[in-house]
Amino acid sequence: MESSATLPLHVCHVKKTELVINRLHAFLHGIALLSLFYYRITSLADIIRNRDNTLLLPHVLILISELILSFIWLLSQAAKWKPVARKTYPERLPGDEKLPSIDVFICTADPNKEPCVKVMNTVISALALDYPPHKLHVYLSDDGGSVATFRAIKQAWKFSKLWVPFCKKYKVKIACPEAYFLTDDESGPDGKFQSNEFIVEKKEIETRYAEFKEIVAKIIADTSISVSKDHPPMIEVIDDANDDGIDSNQREIPLLVYVAREKRPSHPHHFKAGALNVLLRVSAMISNSPYILVLDCDMYCNDPSSARQAMCFHFDHELSPKLGFVQFPQKFYNINETDINDGQQRSVWSKWEGLDGIMGPILSGTCFYIKREALCGTQKFREDVDFIKLKKCFGSSNEFIKSISIYHKRNYQIEHKFRENKVEEELQLLASCSYDDDTKWGKEVGFRYISVVEDYFTGFNLHC
Protein backbone atom coordinates (compact mmCIF):
# COMPACT_ATOMS: atom_id res chain seq x y z
CA MET A 1 0.00 0.00 0.00
CA GLU A 2 1.24 3.48 -0.89
CA SER A 3 0.34 6.61 1.04
CA SER A 4 -1.39 9.46 -0.76
CA ALA A 5 1.78 11.51 -0.29
CA THR A 6 3.77 9.17 -2.56
CA LEU A 7 1.08 8.54 -5.18
CA PRO A 8 1.14 10.80 -8.27
CA LEU A 9 -1.38 13.63 -8.45
CA HIS A 10 -1.69 13.20 -12.20
CA VAL A 11 -0.63 10.84 -14.96
CA CYS A 12 -0.03 11.44 -18.66
CA HIS A 13 -0.19 8.80 -21.36
CA VAL A 14 0.31 8.99 -25.11
CA LYS A 15 -2.75 8.21 -27.25
CA LYS A 16 -0.97 5.56 -29.28
CA THR A 17 -3.79 4.75 -31.71
CA GLU A 18 -4.18 8.38 -32.73
CA LEU A 19 -0.40 8.79 -32.83
CA VAL A 20 -0.02 5.89 -35.31
CA ILE A 21 -2.92 7.10 -37.47
CA ASN A 22 -1.65 10.69 -37.52
CA ARG A 23 1.93 9.75 -38.37
CA LEU A 24 0.85 7.25 -41.05
CA HIS A 25 -1.39 9.90 -42.61
CA ALA A 26 1.45 12.44 -42.47
CA PHE A 27 3.80 9.94 -44.14
CA LEU A 28 1.38 9.15 -46.98
CA HIS A 29 0.46 12.81 -47.40
CA GLY A 30 4.15 13.71 -47.52
CA ILE A 31 4.80 11.14 -50.27
CA ALA A 32 1.88 12.55 -52.27
CA LEU A 33 3.29 16.06 -51.91
CA LEU A 34 6.76 14.97 -53.02
CA SER A 35 5.22 13.29 -56.07
CA LEU A 36 3.31 16.47 -56.84
CA PHE A 37 6.44 18.63 -56.58
CA TYR A 38 8.35 16.18 -58.77
CA TYR A 39 5.62 16.52 -61.39
CA ARG A 40 5.59 20.34 -61.10
CA ILE A 41 9.37 20.68 -61.35
CA THR A 42 9.69 18.30 -64.34
CA SER A 43 6.79 20.05 -66.09
CA LEU A 44 8.39 23.42 -65.43
CA ALA A 45 11.71 22.14 -66.79
CA ASP A 46 9.99 20.99 -69.99
CA ILE A 47 8.31 24.38 -70.39
CA ILE A 48 11.63 26.19 -69.98
CA ARG A 49 13.33 23.78 -72.38
CA ASN A 50 10.59 24.33 -75.00
CA ARG A 51 10.52 28.09 -74.29
CA ASP A 52 6.73 28.11 -73.96
CA ASN A 53 6.32 31.51 -72.29
CA THR A 54 2.51 31.32 -72.22
CA LEU A 55 2.62 28.42 -69.70
CA LEU A 56 5.62 29.55 -67.67
CA LEU A 57 3.98 32.16 -65.43
CA PRO A 58 0.87 30.04 -64.53
CA HIS A 59 3.05 27.05 -63.59
CA VAL A 60 5.36 29.20 -61.45
CA LEU A 61 2.40 30.76 -59.61
CA ILE A 62 0.80 27.35 -59.00
CA LEU A 63 4.11 25.96 -57.71
CA ILE A 64 4.56 28.88 -55.31
CA SER A 65 1.01 28.52 -53.94
CA GLU A 66 1.46 24.77 -53.46
CA LEU A 67 4.75 25.33 -51.66
CA ILE A 68 3.09 27.81 -49.29
CA LEU A 69 0.15 25.50 -48.56
CA SER A 70 2.49 22.54 -48.05
CA PHE A 71 4.56 24.56 -45.58
CA ILE A 72 1.40 25.45 -43.63
CA TRP A 73 0.41 21.75 -43.63
CA LEU A 74 3.87 20.79 -42.37
CA LEU A 75 3.58 23.22 -39.46
CA SER A 76 0.14 21.84 -38.55
CA GLN A 77 1.57 18.34 -38.09
CA ALA A 78 3.22 19.42 -34.84
CA ALA A 79 -0.23 19.47 -33.22
CA LYS A 80 -0.85 15.86 -34.29
CA TRP A 81 2.58 14.32 -33.77
CA LYS A 82 2.22 13.26 -30.14
CA PRO A 83 -1.35 13.56 -28.74
CA VAL A 84 -1.56 12.90 -25.02
CA ALA A 85 -4.29 12.51 -22.42
CA ARG A 86 -4.03 13.44 -18.76
CA LYS A 87 -5.82 12.13 -15.69
CA THR A 88 -5.84 13.83 -12.32
CA TYR A 89 -6.42 12.51 -8.80
CA PRO A 90 -7.84 15.41 -6.74
CA GLU A 91 -8.55 13.08 -3.83
CA ARG A 92 -4.77 12.81 -3.29
CA LEU A 93 -4.36 16.55 -2.69
CA PRO A 94 -3.56 17.73 0.84
CA GLY A 95 -6.36 18.96 3.08
CA ASP A 96 -8.34 22.12 2.38
CA GLU A 97 -6.26 24.09 4.88
CA LYS A 98 -3.15 23.51 2.74
CA LEU A 99 -4.71 24.44 -0.60
CA PRO A 100 -3.73 27.84 -2.06
CA SER A 101 -6.35 30.50 -2.71
CA ILE A 102 -7.72 31.16 -6.20
CA ASP A 103 -9.06 34.34 -7.82
CA VAL A 104 -11.62 34.01 -10.61
CA PHE A 105 -11.68 36.72 -13.29
CA ILE A 106 -14.83 37.12 -15.43
CA CYS A 107 -15.08 39.88 -18.04
CA THR A 108 -18.20 41.42 -19.56
CA ALA A 109 -18.58 44.60 -21.56
CA ASP A 110 -22.06 45.11 -22.98
CA PRO A 111 -25.37 43.78 -21.57
CA ASN A 112 -26.92 44.31 -25.00
CA LYS A 113 -24.64 41.68 -26.52
CA GLU A 114 -23.97 39.62 -23.39
CA PRO A 115 -27.32 39.07 -21.61
CA CYS A 116 -27.13 39.61 -17.86
CA VAL A 117 -28.73 36.25 -17.05
CA LYS A 118 -26.02 34.41 -19.00
CA VAL A 119 -23.26 36.46 -17.35
CA MET A 120 -24.70 35.86 -13.88
CA ASN A 121 -24.88 32.12 -14.57
CA THR A 122 -21.14 32.18 -15.15
CA VAL A 123 -20.63 34.10 -11.91
CA ILE A 124 -22.85 31.70 -9.94
CA SER A 125 -21.10 28.64 -11.40
CA ALA A 126 -17.74 30.09 -10.30
CA LEU A 127 -19.07 30.67 -6.77
CA ALA A 128 -20.17 27.01 -6.71
CA LEU A 129 -16.73 25.56 -7.48
CA ASP A 130 -15.76 22.63 -5.27
CA TYR A 131 -13.12 24.54 -3.34
CA PRO A 132 -12.81 25.97 0.18
CA PRO A 133 -15.07 29.06 0.03
CA HIS A 134 -12.71 31.21 2.11
CA LYS A 135 -9.99 30.53 -0.48
CA LEU A 136 -12.10 31.37 -3.53
CA HIS A 137 -12.68 34.95 -4.74
CA VAL A 138 -14.74 35.88 -7.79
CA TYR A 139 -14.22 39.19 -9.64
CA LEU A 140 -16.56 40.47 -12.34
CA SER A 141 -15.14 43.17 -14.63
CA ASP A 142 -17.91 45.28 -16.14
CA ASP A 143 -16.22 47.29 -18.87
CA GLY A 144 -19.46 49.02 -19.79
CA GLY A 145 -20.06 50.33 -16.27
CA SER A 146 -23.70 49.28 -16.65
CA VAL A 147 -26.12 49.92 -13.80
CA ALA A 148 -28.09 46.89 -14.95
CA THR A 149 -25.08 44.59 -14.57
CA PHE A 150 -24.34 45.99 -11.11
CA ARG A 151 -27.91 45.44 -9.94
CA ALA A 152 -27.99 41.97 -11.54
CA ILE A 153 -24.85 40.81 -9.72
CA LYS A 154 -26.48 41.70 -6.41
CA GLN A 155 -29.39 39.42 -7.31
CA ALA A 156 -26.95 36.70 -8.38
CA TRP A 157 -25.30 36.96 -4.97
CA LYS A 158 -28.64 36.47 -3.22
CA PHE A 159 -29.50 33.43 -5.34
CA SER A 160 -26.03 31.93 -4.84
CA LYS A 161 -26.69 31.76 -1.09
CA LEU A 162 -29.27 29.10 -1.93
CA TRP A 163 -27.55 27.54 -4.93
CA VAL A 164 -24.05 27.02 -3.50
CA PRO A 165 -25.18 25.10 -0.36
CA PHE A 166 -27.50 22.99 -2.57
CA CYS A 167 -24.62 22.11 -4.90
CA LYS A 168 -22.31 21.19 -2.03
CA LYS A 169 -24.95 19.18 -0.17
CA TYR A 170 -25.83 17.01 -3.16
CA LYS A 171 -22.47 17.21 -4.96
CA VAL A 172 -24.10 18.67 -8.06
CA LYS A 173 -21.79 18.23 -11.05
CA ILE A 174 -23.35 20.98 -13.20
CA ALA A 175 -22.64 24.19 -11.30
CA CYS A 176 -24.44 26.47 -13.77
CA PRO A 177 -28.15 26.66 -12.83
CA GLU A 178 -29.30 27.38 -16.39
CA ALA A 179 -27.55 24.26 -17.72
CA TYR A 180 -28.54 22.18 -14.68
CA PHE A 181 -32.26 22.84 -15.04
CA LEU A 182 -32.13 22.00 -18.75
CA THR A 183 -31.53 18.39 -17.73
CA ASP A 184 -34.39 16.11 -16.71
CA ASP A 185 -32.41 14.23 -14.09
CA GLU A 186 -34.44 13.97 -10.89
CA SER A 187 -31.67 12.22 -8.98
CA GLY A 188 -28.47 13.48 -7.47
CA PRO A 189 -25.01 12.54 -8.70
CA ASP A 190 -24.61 8.85 -9.50
CA GLY A 191 -28.23 8.32 -8.56
CA LYS A 192 -27.47 8.58 -4.83
CA PHE A 193 -30.19 11.06 -3.99
CA GLN A 194 -33.59 9.86 -5.03
CA SER A 195 -35.29 10.84 -1.81
CA ASN A 196 -38.25 13.14 -1.59
CA GLU A 197 -36.04 15.62 0.26
CA PHE A 198 -33.76 16.04 -2.76
CA ILE A 199 -36.68 16.35 -5.21
CA VAL A 200 -38.43 18.91 -3.02
CA GLU A 201 -35.27 20.98 -2.59
CA LYS A 202 -34.55 20.85 -6.30
CA LYS A 203 -38.06 22.09 -7.12
CA GLU A 204 -37.66 24.89 -4.57
CA ILE A 205 -34.31 25.94 -6.04
CA GLU A 206 -35.77 25.80 -9.55
CA THR A 207 -38.61 28.07 -8.45
CA ARG A 208 -36.19 30.51 -6.88
CA TYR A 209 -34.08 30.47 -10.01
CA ALA A 210 -37.14 31.33 -12.10
CA GLU A 211 -37.81 34.23 -9.72
CA PHE A 212 -34.17 35.33 -10.05
CA LYS A 213 -34.48 35.43 -13.86
CA GLU A 214 -37.72 37.42 -13.61
CA ILE A 215 -36.06 39.97 -11.32
CA VAL A 216 -33.09 40.32 -13.69
CA ALA A 217 -35.47 40.70 -16.64
CA LYS A 218 -37.31 43.45 -14.74
CA ILE A 219 -33.98 45.17 -14.01
CA ILE A 220 -33.16 45.12 -17.73
CA ALA A 221 -36.60 46.51 -18.56
CA ASP A 222 -36.50 49.27 -15.94
CA THR A 223 -32.82 50.22 -16.20
CA SER A 224 -30.85 51.71 -19.03
CA ILE A 225 -28.48 49.11 -20.47
CA SER A 226 -26.49 51.65 -22.42
CA VAL A 227 -22.73 51.19 -22.29
CA SER A 228 -20.67 54.00 -20.83
CA LYS A 229 -17.32 54.93 -22.34
CA ASP A 230 -16.74 57.76 -19.90
CA HIS A 231 -17.00 56.84 -16.21
CA PRO A 232 -14.86 56.80 -13.04
CA PRO A 233 -13.68 53.52 -11.49
CA MET A 234 -16.06 51.64 -9.22
CA ILE A 235 -15.12 48.69 -7.00
CA GLU A 236 -17.70 47.07 -4.76
CA VAL A 237 -17.64 43.94 -2.59
CA ILE A 238 -21.04 42.30 -3.01
CA ASP A 239 -22.43 41.14 0.34
CA ASP A 240 -25.43 41.59 2.57
CA ALA A 241 -23.71 42.05 5.92
CA ASN A 242 -25.60 45.28 6.41
CA ASP A 243 -28.92 43.57 5.75
CA ASP A 244 -28.91 40.67 8.17
CA GLY A 245 -25.59 40.90 9.97
CA ILE A 246 -24.24 37.68 8.45
CA ASP A 247 -21.25 37.97 6.14
CA SER A 248 -20.10 35.72 3.32
CA ASN A 249 -17.63 33.73 5.42
CA GLN A 250 -20.32 32.76 7.92
CA ARG A 251 -22.53 31.66 5.04
CA GLU A 252 -19.67 29.74 3.44
CA ILE A 253 -20.01 31.71 0.20
CA PRO A 254 -16.89 32.86 -1.68
CA LEU A 255 -16.05 36.53 -1.92
CA LEU A 256 -17.68 38.35 -4.86
CA VAL A 257 -16.32 41.67 -6.15
CA TYR A 258 -17.72 43.98 -8.85
CA VAL A 259 -15.14 46.04 -10.75
CA ALA A 260 -15.80 48.75 -13.34
CA ARG A 261 -12.49 50.30 -14.37
CA GLU A 262 -12.21 53.95 -15.33
CA LYS A 263 -12.83 54.74 -18.98
CA ARG A 264 -12.28 57.99 -20.84
CA PRO A 265 -12.92 58.57 -24.57
CA SER A 266 -9.47 60.08 -25.08
CA HIS A 267 -7.59 57.25 -23.39
CA PRO A 268 -6.86 53.78 -24.86
CA HIS A 269 -8.52 50.99 -22.87
CA HIS A 270 -6.76 47.99 -24.50
CA PHE A 271 -9.93 45.90 -24.69
CA LYS A 272 -10.10 42.66 -22.67
CA ALA A 273 -6.37 42.68 -21.84
CA GLY A 274 -6.79 46.06 -20.16
CA ALA A 275 -9.75 44.80 -18.13
CA LEU A 276 -7.84 41.69 -17.02
CA ASN A 277 -4.83 43.74 -15.96
CA VAL A 278 -7.04 45.97 -13.83
CA LEU A 279 -8.46 42.85 -12.16
CA LEU A 280 -4.91 41.59 -11.67
CA ARG A 281 -4.01 44.78 -9.79
CA VAL A 282 -7.25 45.18 -7.84
CA SER A 283 -7.32 41.54 -6.74
CA ALA A 284 -3.72 41.87 -5.51
CA MET A 285 -4.95 44.42 -2.98
CA ILE A 286 -7.94 42.35 -1.87
CA SER A 287 -7.30 38.60 -2.02
CA ASN A 288 -3.89 38.36 -3.73
CA SER A 289 -4.26 34.68 -4.62
CA PRO A 290 -1.29 32.93 -6.25
CA TYR A 291 -3.52 31.30 -8.88
CA ILE A 292 -6.10 32.84 -11.21
CA LEU A 293 -8.93 31.30 -13.21
CA VAL A 294 -9.98 33.36 -16.25
CA LEU A 295 -13.45 32.84 -17.73
CA ASP A 296 -15.33 34.47 -20.57
CA CYS A 297 -18.72 35.67 -19.41
CA ASP A 298 -20.46 33.00 -21.52
CA MET A 299 -18.17 30.14 -20.44
CA TYR A 300 -19.48 28.65 -17.20
CA CYS A 301 -17.62 26.19 -14.94
CA ASN A 302 -18.99 22.90 -16.28
CA ASP A 303 -16.95 20.84 -13.80
CA PRO A 304 -16.90 22.09 -10.18
CA SER A 305 -13.80 20.00 -9.49
CA SER A 306 -11.71 21.85 -12.09
CA ALA A 307 -9.94 23.94 -9.43
CA ARG A 308 -8.76 20.84 -7.60
CA GLN A 309 -7.78 19.21 -10.89
CA ALA A 310 -5.64 22.23 -11.79
CA MET A 311 -3.96 22.09 -8.39
CA CYS A 312 -2.91 18.50 -9.15
CA PHE A 313 -0.51 19.97 -11.73
CA HIS A 314 0.50 23.04 -9.76
CA PHE A 315 1.29 20.86 -6.71
CA ASP A 316 3.66 18.66 -8.72
CA HIS A 317 7.09 19.64 -7.36
CA GLU A 318 8.86 18.64 -10.58
CA LEU A 319 6.37 20.19 -13.00
CA SER A 320 5.27 23.30 -11.09
CA PRO A 321 8.49 25.39 -11.44
CA LYS A 322 8.15 25.15 -15.23
CA LEU A 323 4.35 25.45 -15.32
CA GLY A 324 2.69 28.72 -16.30
CA PHE A 325 -0.95 27.72 -16.75
CA VAL A 326 -3.34 24.77 -16.99
CA GLN A 327 -5.74 24.99 -19.95
CA PHE A 328 -9.17 23.33 -19.82
CA PRO A 329 -11.24 22.65 -22.96
CA GLN A 330 -13.97 24.99 -24.17
CA LYS A 331 -17.30 23.23 -24.64
CA PHE A 332 -20.70 24.62 -25.60
CA TYR A 333 -23.95 23.21 -24.19
CA ASN A 334 -26.40 25.23 -26.32
CA ILE A 335 -25.33 24.06 -29.78
CA ASN A 336 -28.04 23.27 -32.31
CA GLU A 337 -28.56 19.50 -32.71
CA THR A 338 -28.18 19.86 -36.49
CA ASP A 339 -24.93 21.82 -36.22
CA ILE A 340 -22.56 20.86 -39.07
CA ASN A 341 -19.96 23.59 -38.48
CA ASP A 342 -18.25 22.06 -35.42
CA GLY A 343 -19.67 24.70 -33.12
CA GLN A 344 -18.38 22.65 -30.18
CA GLN A 345 -14.82 23.13 -31.52
CA ARG A 346 -13.99 19.45 -31.09
CA SER A 347 -11.41 19.64 -33.88
CA VAL A 348 -9.66 22.52 -32.13
CA TRP A 349 -9.38 20.68 -28.82
CA SER A 350 -7.80 17.65 -30.52
CA LYS A 351 -5.01 19.99 -31.68
CA TRP A 352 -4.57 21.23 -28.11
CA GLU A 353 -4.06 17.63 -26.97
CA GLY A 354 -1.37 17.29 -29.64
CA LEU A 355 0.36 20.51 -28.56
CA ASP A 356 0.24 19.23 -24.99
CA GLY A 357 2.45 16.37 -26.15
CA ILE A 358 5.26 18.71 -27.15
CA MET A 359 5.53 21.98 -25.17
CA GLY A 360 1.94 22.57 -24.15
CA PRO A 361 -0.99 24.36 -25.81
CA ILE A 362 -1.31 28.08 -26.36
CA LEU A 363 -3.47 30.18 -24.06
CA SER A 364 -7.12 30.01 -25.17
CA GLY A 365 -8.42 33.20 -23.55
CA THR A 366 -10.76 31.39 -21.16
CA CYS A 367 -10.97 28.28 -18.96
CA PHE A 368 -7.37 28.37 -17.75
CA TYR A 369 -5.73 28.45 -14.31
CA ILE A 370 -2.62 30.63 -14.45
CA LYS A 371 0.00 31.59 -11.89
CA ARG A 372 -0.08 35.21 -10.79
CA GLU A 373 3.71 35.12 -10.77
CA ALA A 374 3.73 34.05 -14.44
CA LEU A 375 1.83 37.22 -15.34
CA CYS A 376 3.81 39.55 -13.08
CA GLY A 377 7.17 38.00 -13.91
CA THR A 378 8.57 38.64 -10.43
CA GLN A 379 11.09 35.77 -10.57
CA LYS A 380 13.43 37.88 -12.68
CA PHE A 381 13.71 40.51 -9.91
CA ARG A 382 16.23 40.06 -7.14
CA GLU A 383 15.29 40.75 -3.53
CA ASP A 384 17.55 43.82 -3.47
CA VAL A 385 16.12 45.29 -6.69
CA ASP A 386 15.85 49.07 -6.82
CA PHE A 387 12.37 50.29 -5.77
CA ILE A 388 12.40 52.95 -8.50
CA LYS A 389 12.95 50.24 -11.09
CA LEU A 390 9.93 48.37 -9.73
CA LYS A 391 7.81 51.51 -10.01
CA LYS A 392 8.81 51.96 -13.64
CA CYS A 393 7.74 48.40 -14.26
CA PHE A 394 4.58 48.02 -12.13
CA GLY A 395 3.38 51.60 -11.70
CA SER A 396 3.23 54.12 -8.89
CA SER A 397 1.29 52.14 -6.27
CA ASN A 398 3.57 51.28 -3.34
CA GLU A 399 0.96 48.94 -1.88
CA PHE A 400 0.66 46.98 -5.11
CA ILE A 401 4.43 46.57 -5.34
CA LYS A 402 4.45 45.30 -1.75
CA SER A 403 1.74 42.78 -2.62
CA ILE A 404 3.88 41.31 -5.41
CA SER A 405 6.50 40.02 -2.99
CA ILE A 406 3.85 38.37 -0.81
CA TYR A 407 1.46 37.17 -3.50
CA HIS A 408 1.04 33.90 -1.62
CA LYS A 409 -0.47 35.73 1.34
CA ARG A 410 -3.65 37.70 1.71
CA ASN A 411 -2.79 41.37 1.72
CA TYR A 412 -5.86 42.75 3.46
CA GLN A 413 -8.59 41.44 5.71
CA ILE A 414 -11.60 42.44 3.61
CA GLU A 415 -14.19 42.38 6.33
CA HIS A 416 -12.36 44.96 8.43
CA LYS A 417 -10.19 47.06 6.13
CA PHE A 418 -11.64 47.14 2.64
CA ARG A 419 -13.75 50.21 3.25
CA GLU A 420 -10.94 52.20 4.86
CA ASN A 421 -10.23 55.37 2.89
CA LYS A 422 -6.58 54.47 2.28
CA VAL A 423 -7.46 51.13 0.70
CA GLU A 424 -10.30 52.58 -1.37
CA GLU A 425 -8.03 55.33 -2.69
CA GLU A 426 -5.40 52.75 -3.65
CA LEU A 427 -7.99 50.65 -5.49
CA GLN A 428 -9.27 53.70 -7.35
CA LEU A 429 -5.71 54.44 -8.46
CA LEU A 430 -5.10 50.87 -9.64
CA ALA A 431 -8.35 50.89 -11.65
CA SER A 432 -7.70 54.28 -13.26
CA CYS A 433 -7.23 54.51 -17.03
CA SER A 434 -3.86 56.26 -16.75
CA TYR A 435 -2.15 53.84 -14.35
CA ASP A 436 -0.56 51.89 -17.23
CA ASP A 437 1.12 54.98 -18.67
CA ASP A 438 4.91 54.78 -18.83
CA THR A 439 5.00 51.32 -17.23
CA LYS A 440 5.63 47.76 -18.46
CA TRP A 441 1.96 46.80 -18.21
CA GLY A 442 0.81 45.14 -21.40
CA LYS A 443 4.39 44.84 -22.65
CA GLU A 444 6.27 42.75 -20.10
CA VAL A 445 3.76 42.57 -17.24
CA GLY A 446 0.24 41.15 -17.26
CA PHE A 447 -1.77 40.37 -20.37
CA ARG A 448 -0.28 41.78 -23.57
CA TYR A 449 -1.71 44.85 -25.31
CA ILE A 450 -0.14 44.26 -28.72
CA SER A 451 -3.44 43.03 -30.20
CA VAL A 452 -7.10 42.35 -29.38
CA VAL A 453 -6.18 38.64 -29.21
CA GLU A 454 -4.44 39.06 -25.87
CA ASP A 455 -4.57 35.33 -25.17
CA TYR A 456 -2.39 34.38 -28.13
CA PHE A 457 0.39 36.88 -27.47
CA THR A 458 0.32 36.36 -23.70
CA GLY A 459 0.59 32.58 -24.17
CA PHE A 460 3.32 33.02 -26.78
CA ASN A 461 5.37 35.14 -24.38
CA LEU A 462 4.91 32.58 -21.61
CA HIS A 463 6.15 29.83 -23.94
CA CYS A 464 9.18 31.92 -24.83
From TrEMBL:
Family annotation (SUPFAM superfamilies): Nucleotide-diphospho-sugar transferases
Primary gene name: LOC105155238
Chief location category: membrane
Pfam family, one: Cellulose_synt
Residues engaged in binding UDP-alpha-D-glucose: 113-114, 143
Binding annotation for Mn(2+): 272, 296
Keyword presence, Magnesium: no
GO biological process entries: cell wall organization; cellulose biosynthetic process
InterPro entries for this protein: Cellulose_synth, Nucleotide-diphossugar_trans
Organism: Sesamum indicum
Transmembrane domains' residue ranges: 20-41, 53-75
Name of the featured protein: Cellulose synthase A catalytic subunit 4 [UDP-forming]-like
